[in-house]
Amino acid sequence: MDVTTGFFYLFSAVLLFAAFRVVTARNPVHAVLFLMLAFSQAAGVWLLLKAEFLAIALVLVYLGAVMVLFLFVVMMLDINIDSLRQGFWRHFPAALVVGGLVALEMAAVLIGGFRTGAAPELPQTVVNAAGQAAAYSNSKALGVLLYTKYLYPVQIAAVILLVAMLAAIALTLRERKDTKKVDPSIQVRARARDRVELVSMEPTQPRPPAPEPQQEEAAKS
Questions:
Q1: How far is 27 from 35, CA to CA, in rounded Å?
Q2: pLDDT per residue of the chain (221 residues) written in tens, 0 to 9
């Protein structure tokens, strides 16, 4: 067994263990951490398969953005574990049947793609126009393929993601009534005579007469 095969079995074993702990972990934070470990091991397997772009995209997108967001959401939410575990064993047989059916369907679809024998080696070097050996890059080849043959599907996917992002922002951006803000256009059109009103009043007013003692006694009685 060579070094590559040893690393493959190591990454695969850790990946299976981390995936199992994602399902069986009691603490949601621990489950998210095990899921991050599973993604990192999957990136290692892709590196062994010489798919550097997919491995780096998995690390940057999932480990660097999505899983960190999941971790913050799980840590900020006050999740009641006891209420989530109520009725677990009552629904366990149905979940086991559905899980087994999904596993059998996936096995039936994927089993035809496995072939015995050694995997073909990917070319490490290519010959350029001058007849000299040039370095071969999987990332460059994938980029050229995406932006030449699959240019329109990539652009359509980018537009769909942009629309989804704008829709999410529009749904969450609601006008609050308790905020004290002023429209700048109204401030620009403000005039002094609209803000201040001058009222003419007499400088002094006569003091009201004091009540007589007899009127005070009558009022008290």
A1: 13
A2: 788 888 899 999 999 999 999 888 888 888 888 988 999 999 999 888 888 888 888 888 888 878 877 777 777 776 666 666 677 778 888 888 998 999 898 888 877 766 555 555 545 555 455 554 456 677 788 788 888 888 898 899 889 989 988 887 777 676 666 667 777 787 788 777 777 777 777 777 777 777 676 666 666 66
Do the beta carbons of residue 42 and residue 15 sit within 8 Å? Answer: yes
Cα separation of 64 and 57, whole Å? 10
Q: Is 26 helix (H, G, I), strand (E, B) or coil?
A: coil
d(CA 160, CA 72): 26
The rounded distance, in Å, linking the Cα atoms of 76 and 150 is 41
Round to the nearest angstrom and report the end-to-end CA distance of the chain.
Answer: 117
C-alpha of 5 from chain center:
34
Give the C-alpha separation, 62 to 38, whole Å: 11
Compute CA 208 distance to the chain's CA centroid, rounded to the nearest angstrom: 74
Q: Does residue 140 contact residue 148 with C-beta atoms inside 8 Å?
A: no
